[in-house]
Amino acid sequence: MYAVMGITGQVGGAVARTLLAGGRQVRGVVRNPARAADWASRGVSLATADQADAAALMAAFHGTEGAFVMLPPMFAPSPDFAEARGLIAVLHSALSAASIPRVVALSTIGAQHEAGTGILKGLYLMEQSLATLHMPIAFVRAAWFMENAAWDVQPASEQGELSSYLQPLDQPFPMVSTQDVGRVAAEVLAGPAWSGRRVVELEGPRRYSPNDLALALSQVVRRPVQPRAVPREQWEPAFQAQGAPPAAAMLRAQMLDGFNTGHVDFGGESEHVRGSVSLDEAVAKLSRPAQE
User: Fold this and answer.
1) Among 61, 127, 181, 255, which is disulfide-ready with 98 (CB 3.0 to 4.6 Å)?
2) What single-letter DSSP state applies at residue 288?
């Protein structure tokens, strides 16, 4: 049996589906079992644990063959990443106490850098901490999620426009579908044994530009979509208008600067894997219910 955090989300759900398809048993680690009732109906056992509760997490991980773990998304972290640091300490404690055979952790492209990655720094901190665990651990460093385009479907449909913070518009960026992330994470988790720390860099079949994304969106909304580069001086005011505190808006802009300059990229460590889901396929699924 394998423990899976985030099972009600896109990546964790894809991890669980892949494991189940391979005939493995899954224990979903959830805060609210009611939200995971559909998984229970498919034979997944559920363990209730808040990510801030080390004892509950330890109990959820204990006795499994391995665990897929992740931090919750943090779009507005404190400048000192206090929230991430706290959850990382809890996760480290729980995994150490559970003493399971292996761990796969969801990380990010650019996690090899201590600075210059904005809101992604929390995952650098996670890697630094969990790498000290006594069991084998693999970090899946995923590229920009293709499914981030979900935010762009409505304005593309209503206005025929894609406002892009990734720039220039013709520059290809590393992107990957959450379905590929979950599949690869599950294959690593249930695959051949390894020792020590392992890094799996993961992106899609090829790199895609904002122009490519606009074209993919045009197929979904069935109208031409024009990409527009949002001027740099407008970024932080726009993020603050969406509710981000000034410091968090600055960190989000710093992350985007990192992508645009190439600072946020893969480090060439260990394994580099390409997924099979194209940008067109991932964006097309945004207009219909997820296929279970």
Assistant:
1) 61
2) S
What's the pLDDT score for residue 270?
74
Cα dihedral sign, 281-254-121-198: positive
List domains and CATH numbers for the chain. 2-285 (3.40.50.720)
d(CA 57, CA 67): 11
pLDDT in tens, 166-192: 999 999 999 999 999 999 999 999 999
pLDDT (tens digit per residue) in 94-115: 999 999 999 999 999 999 999 9
Whole-number CA gyration radius for the chain: 19
Tokens 């943090």 locate to 74
**Residue 27 scores a pLDDT above 50:** yes
DSSP string, 3-21: EEETTTSHHHHHHHHHHHH
**What is the length of the chain?**
292
pLDDT for 205-242, tens place per residue? 999 999 999 999 999 999 999 999 999 999 999 999 99
User: What does each C-alpha distance from 245 to 114, 224, 254 come to in angstroms?
Assistant: 22, 35, 14
- Beta partners for 125? none
**What is the torsional sign of CA 162, 163, 169, 175?**
negative
| The two three-digit tokens of residue 140, written as one number | 């899946």
Measured from the Cβ of residue 64, the count of other Cβ atoms closer than 10 Å reads 20
Judge if pTM exceeds 0.90: yes
